Amino acid sequence: MKWRVASVAFLLSAVGTGCTWLTLHRPLLALMEAVRHTAGHGSREAALLVRTIGSLPFLLGLDLVLLTVVAYGVLDLMVGRPLRRTEELVEQLGRLELDASMTESAGPLLSRIQRALSRMALALQEEQETTRRQVEALRAANARLAQAQMELVSSERLATVGRLAAGVAHEVGNPLAGILGYLSLAGARTQDPEVQEFLARIDHEVQRIDGIVRGLLEIGRPGRGLLGPVEVGHVVEACVQLVKAGRDFSSVRLSLALTPGLLARADSGPLSQIIINLLLNAVQAMEGKGEVRLSTRSEGGDVLLLVEDAGPGIPEEVMPRLFEPFFTTREPGQGTGLGLAVSRSLAEGMGGRLMAENLPGGGARFSVRLPGV
Known about the structure:
- It is a single chain.
- The strands form two sheets. A five-stranded mixed β-sheet has the order 2-4-5-7-6.
- It is α+β, with helices and mostly antiparallel strands.
- It is rod-shaped, with a radius of gyration of 47 Å.
- It starts with a helix and ends with a strand.
């Protein structure tokens, strides 16, 4: 930009100097002839006039330089600098740097151009902000849609398991009761320690089968009766008193932060089952050592129960399948994978929700949201 301004200044100065030379050339020649005729050819006046005419090229060159400098300064101040600032603004707009600001230049044309660019930058900035908000809204809506789809698939699976359980529970339950009865009789009629050990193992496995069937029935069972006001803090305290005497909780610290008088529309029986399942899962995740925090609070008209552990957290690949029936990360024979599925089904049967997430500092958090009273 500076070289172009300098070229224009030089061109203008050259044109001005040339016009000056053409204007003065003929009058000076006529003056020289007049002096020669009047004063004579070798007179002092004629010699002075000759020297003056001889110095004209130097003076014109000096005039050209001075005019070039003056023209460059004027053009750069009035045109070059505003154009460079306008060019920088256009480049910033091209890089989507929409917070660029410009001081308004002198001159009506450049001022109008710069005002138009400033208005365009402001409009683009507002449009960019609107687009950003829309993208964030779309991401949130997409996340909610994915969550709803996952919950729908999970509910459909639970409903399928429930229908299956309802169909086979009666047929399986009666033979199991008969097997347990015969095992009790067989154990009473033999004194052989080896046979009694075999019978105890059979009894244990049959009890596991019976627990699985009962868990399936819990998943497929609809809401139980009428729900009433339940003080969540009392239910949590009763569950803690029940489990803390167990062997698995001997090295576990249970801390409570319960809001007194917090009432939820629920059933104390299913709610107790959910809390105990979550406590057992927390202790198993921490391998029997650490702290489990239970807290309650009111949020948006609902009652929120939080169970947080100090374990390793839930792996990303496990999170989508966490509430699936029969999905477990434990060793074979150490769990049926029905605890969380049953707990979510019980929570939804009371009009609530059961959710899981990882804590920023490590560990997992399970949230039970129930309608408030």
